[in-house]
Amino acid sequence: MEKPALEVQLQTLPDSPGVYQYYDKNGKILYVGKAKNLKKRVTSYFTKRHDSHRIGVMVKKIREIKHIVVASETDALLLENNLIKKHQPRFNVMLKDDKTYPWICIKNERFPRVFPTRRLIKDGSEYYGPFTSFKTVNTLLDLIKGLYKLRTCNYDLAEDKIENGKYKVCLEYHLGNCEGPCEGKQAEEEYNRNIEAIRQIVKGNFKDSLQQFRNQMKLHAENMEFEDAQRIKEKIHVLENYQSKSTIINPKITNVDVFSITSDEGYGYVNFLQISHGAIIRSHTIEMKKKLDESDQELLELAITEIRQRFNSNSKEIYLPFNIEFAEDVKVTVPQLGDKKKIVELSLRNAKYYRQERFKQMKIVDPDRHVNRIMAQMKEDLRLNEEPRHIECFDNSNIQGTNPVAACVVFKNGKPSKKDYRKFNIKTVEGPNDFASMEEVVFRRYRRLLNEGEDLPQLIIVDGGKGQLSSGVKALETLGLRGKIAIIGIAKRLEEIFYPDDTIPLYLDKKTESLKIIQQLRNEAHRFGITFHRNKRSKVALNTELESITGIGEKTVVELLKQFRSVKRIKEASLENLSEVVGASKARILYEHYHKE
């Protein structure tokens, strides 16, 4: 499929947070921006009048829109920062400098310091973040400082230097903010336990710290040290109320290519994320046509080679959702949990969004291909011999056996054909018998089509389980149509699909379009049948004892019920009240009918 026009791209953008990129006719990047809702934000550029001359000029140059979907607005903010610094787009003014968002550093040293920084130095230190503002960092560091006593000096606390008494404790020790490891007043093992607890806190895992503080609080309370117990309780309260954030960026993931794939019966969609120095610097998705019904593994192997060559990638490690055979000297990793797994999931989410957008674009610019794809998918999913271009669905409607009716709705090429809908009054069945009713309407429907020489459907769907399906099959047998038309039943509870002579139902993926069309058919048949049933019931309800009174017609009954709401109130009404509604003569008839005594 050719690159869609700008108008089509705008119509098919997702309502998700993410980063968008504008390109000119030469494929040069013009602008990178973030959005809480990609569709609303990007569309606003083309629908609003811009006061800024710079933005107006940029909009005129836009020829293509690309985007990366992320989990939250915070992730979009951070990703925008990385992409602007990488590509330096002409129309971006902010974030082009070498400053980045702040991180929390646990320094690689004996008795590690914990401090904020904007610079990532590759010295083995641990970096957590990035955070969207220093306010968040300072809040977290204040929390840590209130929970644990850590050194703030930059001394080299080597073991021999401490033993030789090179350092003296500073004011922080006397203020109670530090335990004095510089003079050997705090054991390294105890300090490192605190550092490990801090690691868990900045990752958002407070379980161990909370348990440790609860044990301390309990111990203080048992020893009647209630002020200390209260101090620990306040720390617990602070921890419980702090909510950690998660980001899509991890400084330990560096110089890695990430690939994922989603596919349908005709195409595979492969997403590529390039990670450099702990940040996403590129996202690209390609559409691959299946020629020989290739598997996802085969398509992914082809795509990885093509994409890495296109972008000159020399990464020595790739992350994938499953293992493949890869000839190059590259380490293949299939993450099972943690940040690496999240990156693969983010890639897969972008591949799925791309597929959805292509479907929407196809529906707009090439509706025939869209219909052909859906029909081919339904044929495969439902194990049919031919594409179900013409589908009919039946539903019974009755309440406690009263006014039994049935409905038949018709879909052609996956769309409702309302002129072909039919409704049936059940004629041969007395009482609430769904099975017999289904057999009657299926028989009547196709006997008529045969008699009139009309086209028969490729697929019949009956709303119900094995019983209703058996009734439909019996009707087709009577007409000599069994085996000539595919027939299935769908049970509401678990969306089970039943086939004739097969005790095991079929379960379709809840997200597949085949199931969505079947559900749409079932719901439409139910709506159409219920509407017919209600109308019939209403007409019967009007035929009350009022109409049996000589001289009182249907219009008079409607006026009376509209005013008095029930037959009981009409019986109790005075002659004067009745006269106000229906006139003196009819009021006299009604009044005398109910007051003969």
Automatic annotation (TrEMBL):
<dbReference type="InterPro" id="IPR047296">
    <property type="entry name" value="GIY-YIG_UvrC_Cho"/>
</dbReference>
<dbReference type="Pfam" id="PF08459">
    <property type="entry name" value="UvrC_RNaseH_dom"/>
</dbReference>
<dbReference type="InterPro" id="IPR001162">
    <property type="entry name" value="UvrC_RNase_H_dom"/>
</dbReference>
<dbReference type="Pfam" id="PF22920">
    <property type="entry name" value="UvrC_RNaseH"/>
</dbReference>
<dbReference type="Pfam" id="PF01541">
    <property type="entry name" value="GIY-YIG"/>
</dbReference>
<keyword id="KW-0267">Excision nuclease</keyword>
<keyword id="KW-0742">SOS response</keyword>
<dbReference type="InterPro" id="IPR004791">
    <property type="entry name" value="UvrC"/>
</dbReference>
<dbReference type="InterPro" id="IPR010994">
    <property type="entry name" value="RuvA_2-like"/>
</dbReference>
<comment type="subunit">
    <text>Interacts with UvrB in an incision complex.</text>
</comment>
<dbReference type="InterPro" id="IPR050066">
    <property type="entry name" value="UvrABC_protein_C"/>
</dbReference>
<keyword id="KW-0227">DNA damage</keyword>
<feature type="domain" description="UvrC family homology region profile">
    <location>
        <begin position="272"/>
        <end position="471"/>
    </location>
</feature>
<dbReference type="InterPro" id="IPR035901">
    <property type="entry name" value="GIY-YIG_endonuc_sf"/>
</dbReference>
<dbReference type="InterPro" id="IPR036876">
    <property type="entry name" value="UVR_dom_sf"/>
</dbReference>
<keyword id="KW-0963">Cytoplasm</keyword>
<dbReference type="InterPro" id="IPR038476">
    <property type="entry name" value="UvrC_RNase_H_dom_sf"/>
</dbReference>
<comment type="similarity">
    <text>Belongs to the UvrC family.</text>
</comment>
<dbReference type="InterPro" id="IPR000305">
    <property type="entry name" value="GIY-YIG_endonuc"/>
</dbReference>
<dbReference type="Pfam" id="PF14520">
    <property type="entry name" value="HHH_5"/>
</dbReference>
<comment type="function">
    <text>The UvrABC repair system catalyzes the recognition and processing of DNA lesions. UvrC both incises the 5' and 3' sides of the lesion. The N-terminal half is responsible for the 3' incision and the C-terminal half is responsible for the 5' incision.</text>
</comment>
<dbReference type="InterPro" id="IPR001943">
    <property type="entry name" value="UVR_dom"/>
</dbReference>
<feature type="domain" description="UVR">
    <location>
        <begin position="207"/>
        <end position="242"/>
    </location>
</feature>
<feature type="domain" description="GIY-YIG">
    <location>
        <begin position="15"/>
        <end position="93"/>
    </location>
</feature>
<keyword id="KW-0228">DNA excision</keyword>
<protein>
    <recommendedName>
        <fullName>UvrABC system protein C</fullName>
    </recommendedName>
</protein>
<keyword id="KW-0234">DNA repair</keyword>
